[in-house]
Target: N-(5'-phosphoribosyl)anthranilate isomerase
Amino acid sequence: MGTDIRIKICGLHTRAAIAQAASLGVAYIGLVFFPKSPRHLDIEEARALALDTPPGMAKVALTVNAEDAAIEAILNRVPIDMLQLHGAETPGRVAEVRARFGLPVMKAVGVAGAEDLPALDAYARVADQILVDAKPPKGADLPGGNGLAFDWQLIAKRRWAVPWMLAGGLTPENVAAAIRLTGARQVDVSSGVESAPGIKDADKMARFVAAARGETDA
Ligand SMILES: O=C(O)c1ccccc1NCC(=O)[C@H](O)[C@H](O)COP(=O)(O)O
Model:
């Protein structure tokens, strides 16, 4: 562990939460473009927040099965550093988005069991990063951001040729153990630093960052 752990906080939608993320030295912030989500931002809200974001944090646009036109509409107005594809985009679609928009692409891949692991290898061949996340429960409204963890043992000895991020149900209480077990150097959190769906909690954010860096006893 240590301060070299890179942290992404997803689903931020207030200036205060973004300012706090910056003061904590968070590496990435996720802006969610998915209308069913309590963290959804419309394009003009996202633009205002992104223009106000202190330098030094990568602004990641999260979309779900978005068409080119929808991605283009975001990128025309919002200064974005990375695209996070969080739907059922195929490896071919990931390669296409990457080539078309010229931004790094992180593909979220849901894991529930060993049968899901080959997909990680397939996406690692085409994406700039992979987000190793919990698979959403059947019938869930959201394909991510559900606060569910998967069995970290499944990826305990696995490595990929691109940077990867651990996600899914991480909290201030479990993130240190998750990092120890998986060897992750990057972690992503949303629900685990909220007081209610979509509402980020300043104390939980601070405790999460400290725990991920091994600054607490967890
Ligand atoms: O956050 C959302 O509402 C969301 C909506 C649609 C697709 C993905 C979404 N979130 C993804 C994330 O917040 C994270 O990248 C990841 O799934 C971890 O979330 P959590 O388990 O809540 O920490």
User: Anything to note?
Assistant: Residues 91-101 form the longest helix (11 residues). The chain has seven helices and ten strands. The mean pLDDT is 96.
